């Protein structure tokens, strides 16, 4: 599955300001930024991302996914300290 295809699915399904998907072999890393994650715990954030991708996950098209979800404020801080 192409990274841009995953980005499009997530942008169409969720209120996100930014999505970055990278791929290394069969492993995908998703960084999602949106106000929709405000007040959510990490598990709920991941469930929110998994939801629109579930058909691709259950078909085996997608597996080995790492998800990092941030609010816009958290993302600004993350970029300053870790990038």
Automatic annotation (TrEMBL):
Pfam families on file: BolA (PF01722)
Domain of life of the source: Bacteria
Gene3D superfamilies, sorted: BolA-like (3.30.300.90)
InterPro entries associated with the record: BolA (IPR002634), BolA-like_sf (IPR036065), BolA/IbaG_stress_morph_reg (IPR050961)
Record-stated family: Belongs to the BolA/IbaG family.
Protein name (database record): BolA family transcriptional regulator
Gene source species: Shewanella schlegeliana
């Amino acid at each position: 599955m192409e990274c841009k295809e995953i980005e499009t699915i997530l942008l169409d399904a969720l209120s996100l300001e930014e999505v970055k998907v990278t791929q290394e072999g069969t492993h995908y890393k998703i960084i999602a930024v949106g106000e929709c994650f405000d007040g959510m715990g990490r598990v709920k954030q991941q469930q929110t991302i998994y939801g629109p991708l579930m058909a691709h996950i259950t078909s085996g098209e997608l597996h080995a996914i790492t998800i990092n979800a941030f609010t816009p404020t958290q993302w600004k801080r993350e970029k300053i300290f870790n990038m």
